[in-house]
Structures
1.
Amino acid sequence: MAGVARERVVRWVAGDRARVVVALAVVVALALGLRLGLIAATTHFKPVFDAADFDRLAQSIATTGHYPNSYFAKPGTPTALNPPAYPHLLGLTYAVAGHSWTAGRVLGALLGTLTVLLLALIAWRLWGPVAGVIAGLLGALYPPLVMANASLISEALFLPLVLGLVLLLLARSHVEGSAALVVAVAAGVLCGLAALTRFVGVFLVVVVLIWIWQRGLTARRRLVMGALAVLAACATIAPWTARNTRHFKDFVPIATEGGSSVVGTYNSVSAHAGPLRGTWRPAWLLVKYHGLLNDGLDESQLDRLWRSDALHYALHHPGYPFVALGLNSLRMFGLGPGYSYLEGIWYAEMGIPHRAQRWTRVSVYLMALLALFGVIVGRRLRRRGDAFLWLIPLLLFLAAAFILGGPRYRIPIDPFLVLVAASGLAVLAQRIRRTDRTAVVTKRAAA
């Protein structure tokens, strides 16, 4: 009898797992269908702002094999304004399919579908198959994630790299022997690729080091794994750093965007009281720097100058960074002064049709409420060893909010909102399932 019962249990578990796999396959197909459907419905799409710049870089890479010259620094000097990973992937797409915005957007749809699959696998790993299906479904349907994949922006590649790192670390919760060293190297490579996609990816190395520290290893093993992770990240970035050093005759690890980013917020114009206080402005549009552009300085020299000016301004106005942080945090969620103007700009860059912008914002509010619900009811699902996971959205959020405010810069933390929301809904689903089973048992007993 015991053998028969055990066999029935094994069959039930196998069948349940098969049903979950089928459900995940349906969710992935839904995610891809929605993203491709959006592309088909927005044939008028034209890249603007960063999307246009990525398109320009990708065209040059597809035709010449390298970046074009800078468009705002000294004429004829090189550019490294944007990190190289996404432009090169987009350039490869153009090399295969020809210069086609649709092909680039389909690449984004495929990357977005991979993001949904990774979300589902992470939630499954953390809280079980029901949470996995729910997380996948939320990620497939969540408008900001759908919309972000219909434009030519680097978040399309950044998100699967970040989530791939999370899944790798979760899958190897217990590390020992040579496998631990392989995990450290793989994690370092993913950190390097993320940094080559968006500079804030460098902060992921900190998360990997904390994960290593939590493993309960010997001090020597922690030191070796940490060193391997850092070296692997540096080795991944090194070829691009060498390219920059060769072209600029200066040390530019990844990109020259840092200076223009910080000085665009930390200047007297952006700090001026008003509805757009604390918002970023392109450095090349600030009157103070008009005389420097297309003059004698290359991007590396401008980057160094702008970093210095921004630091000087922040040190002499110590309260302003926290003002910018508060205002930009609100604007990321469609709140606060000037949000509607900024939202229109960033949604245009993300390729979101005007008629869809309002309900896209409303969906953010709904997801935030679901995430709050998840924090309240899903607390028991979170384990101490997974604490590193929640450091990632915090670091990505702070890295952006001190400088930039707008829905695009919330996108890297949206998958984590989805995960928290899924944890709460999974608890709710389990309670409903238990209630239904109890009702069935009670009914049978009464009969």
2.
Amino acid sequence: LDSDVPTNQIAFAHVLPDNYTNYLSRGTRLPALALNQFHKATVCDIMDISWRKPNGRIYTQIHWPIDITRKEFYTGLEGGDSGYPLFVFLSGKTVLLTVWSSAYFGTSVTAFKEDINEMMTALGGGYQLTEINLSEFRALDE
């Protein structure tokens, strides 16, 4: 791209704030939209937004849906889908959770926002990730 994307035509994806667990817990069984290498969408369920593996890496993990309606829109992922995104939709906004690195998980964007913002600063252009405001939702402990 040689110029900014027109905001009246394309909206950017948000990311979750650090306090997302106050509203979504781990995100277990939230419906999500996954894209694949063929630019097709599939519906899946979140298992954990920031799942720490024993090796210390932090991933967003999904699972096939258990809801009958969601199952109709689930096709799974396969080799070659790495790098394609996973989104949830909250308050009409698209929220990026990961890009695939395996069939059922990808590195958590939520867990690495600071690192991503630092890299974007180093690259120039003045861009940063934008967090979605979840304060309109009721906190889980209320």
